[in-house]
Amino acid sequence: MDRIDIKNMLQWQNLKQHYETEMKNIHLRDLFKNKNRFNKFSICDDNIGITFDYSKNIINYKTFKLLIDFVKALKIDEHIKKMFSGEKINWTENRAVLHTALRNKINNPVYIDGKDIMPKINVVLAKMKKFSDNIRSGKLLGFTGKKITDIVNIGIGGSSLGPKMVCEALKYYAKGPNVHFVSNIDSADIYETLKKLNPETVLFMIASKTFTTLETMTNALTAKQWLKDKLGNKALAYQFIALSTNKKNVKEFGINENNMFEFWDFVGGRYSLWSAIGLSIACYVGYDKFSELLEGAHYIDKHFLNTPYEKNMPIIMAILGFWYNNFYGASTYAILPYSQYLRSFPTYLQQADMESNGKTINIEGNRVNYETGPIIWGASGTNGQHSFYQLIHQGTKFIPSDFIGFTNPLEKIGDHHEKLMANYFAQTEALAFGLTKKEVIKNLKAAGFSSSNIEILAPYKIFEGNRPTNSILINNLTPKTLGALIALYEHKIFIQGLVWRINSFDQWGVELGKVLANVILTELKGHKKNRHDSSTKNLIEIFNFNKKISL
Q: CATH class for domain 108-291?
């Protein structure tokens, strides 16, 4: 990237002036006086079955043009091409970023250092297909000759959040073994999982890029000992596989390298569900459905790469988030899927977004003087409506939101879906337009309230509105549309990282806590004491003292 102070750019200054003089006090009620607003600020892609309505955002034609001018001035199209072409855009780790190559359905060559990586990707995909087909059909059996009925994926971060979210989202399509996910080093996680399982019919997938991650390897060793105690050491060769880049550590653990599914350092953990890390998905819903997931993501990759800025869904999602984050002071962003199947999608996006753009240092190595990534949170509707929507509607925080819904339910039961989607549409309307004092008084009068009661109640029933939302309405929840949805957010996050001039693909912020934990672990096991602040020192001493008492 060129050296740029984005706050001194003419395009930033134009946006700032536009916000201060024209948009700061404008209301969506006024903006919607334009009857053509939806047609101007929405994209309907019938090929994939997605409608992206961004008309309920606090923008007008000028805002949109200024935002587009800003990202054009940053030449983000050049950086997009660099990612897809295999340039090492992860500059702090000197790595390419090519999760897009994992779903390269047209199989065009993709080069790193002059070498096409597609052949080795295709080898692993073929191996995944064969393995998942054999597990599902019963051709591959456990040590005692019984069919595998349960898979335990042991991983953490992207090695768990991605495949877990997808398996939950596609549960309707599942006809394979039950899939369980163990990630937390808290012994309760693996204890509660193992006690439900038959050792003769369980397969363990150890998902770790380096095969050194503390949480994953601790849980893996516990699972290894559990299976060894139940069936003997020979069972490990039948019921343990590795999803990793580290052949040496996999072999030392005791897993045959034929049972290792490789992926590569150009695949970041939070972008790895498309790789061998997605093997649990393929076993659960079938490789054909996993392939459709890749196909949907590839469709959005092509859209992202080839569509003009003005109609490019990830770019528009990114610049709207930038608009609120950097001019309206919106420090959080809500993800609100109106689908129980997508209940883990907000949690998945927490890592995808906050681990990517939770940074303070720019490409020049300097601390930024503007806000970067927001806090991502949310829950499935309508559960969230009875939890935190009160704050979004009438609280003091300014919270933009994405509403994700589906036209057709996977299962038709009474009028559940119509009631669900009535809430979906109603919430975005209420957040946008609210309820004025005049409307409140009129409603209270119609309900028969006295003038004195109306005077007391009216202030509490006013909804200011002007809370911006995007509506992502998808025809059906399928593997293909799910892949497309995930890819939309991946590319949105990437664009925002480019805008803020940070590296969205490293995660040094997770390292310090790990290092200190290893130091403290020696103390908790009774070894020498290390130097700490008075708080940490006394907490460790209280822990060790009470641990001895409880024993």
A: alpha beta
Those residues with Cβ within 8 angstroms of residue 158's Cβ, 6 or more apart along the chain or in another chain: 268, 269, 270, 271, 272, 273, 277, 351
Which H/E stretch holds residue 304? helix 287-306
Q: CA–CA separation, 482 vs 361, rounded Å?
A: 33
Residues 6+ apart with CB under 8 A from 297: 100, 103, 274, 483, 484, 486, 487
Closest CA relative to residue 297, chosen from 160, 413, 465, 162: 162
- One-letter identity of residue 464: E
Diameter over CA atoms, the chain: 82
List 130, 416, 514, 547, catalytic entry: 514
pLDDT in tens, 329-342: 999 999 999 999 99
Q: Provide, rounded to the nearest whole percent, the portion of the chain with pLDDT above 70.
A: 99
Candidates 386, 437, 442, 547; catalytic one: 386
Give the three-state DSSP class for 112: strand
Residue extents of the structural domains in the chain: 6-73+307-432+470-506, 108-291, 434-466, 509-550
Residue-wise pLDDT tens digits, 80-133: 999 999 999 999 999 999 999 999 999 999 999 999 999 999 999 999 999 999
Known catalytic residue: 386? yes
Helical segments of 307-335, H only? 313-327
Given a contact cutoff of 8 angstroms between Cβ atoms, the answer to whether 146 and 200 are in contact is yes
Unique residue bearing structure tokens 């990114």: 318
Residue 35, SS3?
A: coil
Question: Do 108-291 and 6-73+307-432+470-506 fall under one CATH topology?
Answer: yes
171 in active site: no
Is 355 catalytic? The answer is yes
**Which two structure tokens, joined as six digits, stand for 368?**
């930024």
Task: State phi, psi for 55 to the nearest 5 degrees.
Answer: -70, -20
Strand (E) or helix (H) holding 284 = helix 279-285
Instruction: Assign domain 6-73+307-432+470-506 to a CATH class.
Output: alpha beta
